Amino acid sequence: VGNVVGSNLFNVLLILGASALIVPLAVSRQILRVDVPLMICASILCLVMAVDGRYGWSDGVLMLLSFTAYVVFTVREGRRQAALDQPETPAFSFGMAVLLVVGGLALLVLGAHYFVEGAVALARSMGMSEAVIGLTIVAAGTSLPEVATSLTAAVRGQRDIAVGNVVGSNIFNVLLILGVATFTSGGRLEVPPSILRFDLPLMLASAIALAPIAMARGFLARWEGGFFLAAYCAYV
User: Fold this and answer.
1) Quick one: the chain helix, strand, coil %, rounded to 5?
2) What's the burial of 86, exposed, middle or buried (CB within 10 Å: 0-12/13-18/19+)?
3) Mean pLDDT over each residue of the chain, to the nearest integer
4) Any idea what DSSP says for residue 1?
5) Bridge pairing between strands 219-220 and 25-26
6) What span, in angstroms and rounded, lies between the C-alpha atoms of 183 and 165?
7) Quick check: 198 pLDDT over 90?
8) DSSP 85-151
9) What are the residues facing 26 on neighbouring strands?
10) How far apart are CA 181 and CA 109, in angstroms?
């Protein structure tokens, strides 16, 4: 639970904050109209379902059904948009693309295993609780792909990717990862009281804060990125 909540805070406050400091981030109409509201709804769902101190079977089912509906909608929208755009020549053959995806996923899973083992051992030697480990060290480590993607996209001027990467990742974290984790924990995924009181409400607040800032002008200014970054430092 700490990993999901901490990753979502890390994504919005640190990654978007740092990216906006590099270049003001334009936010597409699609992201403003659909994805940001869905991210807020997923965050509300995550908080409301944790009020009883755990995520149960029904919570997991609702999360995974919501995730499936989101993916189906996103794929349909993507195909519709692709049909309107000019076709591009793929960089790799279909077989090579599948090989790269499978190989990359295998290395990602292996790397995640060793990273979590090392981070937990390191944090425990420093006297930190498991909740704090998940909210900070593990959350930052599992968000490193988002860091690389968003910062690279911002430097290259692909601002939609920088924002969409973070918003999509947050939706996946809540609906897919928490949903699966609920089932792998036997339908009883405990939510630490400290996370319920402080970190979950803060995750929702950061998601809500992104909406008016982006909708006001359609982009995140550098000073707003600096504010997000400072907020994350204060949180840590």
Assistant:
1) 80, 5, 15
2) exposed
3) 86
4) -
5) antiparallel
6) 26
7) yes
8) SPP---SS-HHHHHHHHHHHHHHHHHHHHHHHHHHHHHHHHTT--HHHHIIIIIHHHHTHHHHHHHH
9) 219
10) 15
